[in-house]
Amino acid sequence: MRALKIVLVLNFIFLRVYGIGENLETSKVVSLKCEYIVNPLGIDTSHPRLTWQMVDTKHGAMQTAYQIKVGKDEESILKGIGDYWDSGKIESQDILVKYAGLKLKPWTKYFWTVTIWDNKGNKMVA
């Protein structure tokens, strides 16, 4: 049993050193917040701040660009359509962005998504 553990550990190290295990690593966007709140109700500002985090297990990975889309229809947002704001692709490492789209209406529910790109050109959507 001990020999099997050693073989498995050495096999894992070999795969990682030679980059064969790249698909084992995960990259994703998490912790989407509006005014520092997850799924807020009743935001009292016309230009709320949107934030997110990038989680990536690859050494040296970093965000290089983002694109934010905001709309009133969840299905449209899921399809990549932001009818209230589409920031376009912005080359930036910023993870806090002030809303800059159409005027938000009171008592209205909005949905948003962010797409980010890392320093290897990989795209992640949340």
**Alpha-carbon distance between the two ends:** 42 Å
Question: Could you say what the CATH architecture is?
Answer: Sandwich
Total number of helical segments? 2
**Major sheet attributes:** 5 strands, antiparallel
**Main CATH class:** Mainly Beta
CATH-defined fold name:
Immunoglobulin-like
- Gyration radius (Cα, Å) is 19 Å
Layout of strands and helices, then pairs:
Elements: H1 2-17, E1 27-34, E2 49-56, E3 63-71, H2 74-78, E4 85-86, E5 90-91, E6 96-98, E7 111-118, E8 123-125
Antiparallel strand pairs: 1-2, 2-6, 3-4, 3-5, 3-7, 7-8
Report on the structure:
This protein is of the alpha+beta class. The protein has a single domain (25-125), classed as Immunoglobulins (Immunoglobulin-like). Helices cover 17% and strands 34% of the residues. The strands form two sheets. Strands 3, 4, 5, 7 and 8 form a five-stranded antiparallel β-sheet that branches. The chain has a three-stranded antiparallel β-sheet with strand order 1-2-6, with no helix packed on it. The protein is globular, with a radius of gyration of 19 Å. The protein starts with a helix and ends with a strand.
From the structure above, extract its key features.
126 residues, alpha+beta, Immunoglobulin-like, five-stranded antiparallel sheet, three-stranded antiparallel sheet, 17% helix, 34% strand, globular, disordered N terminus
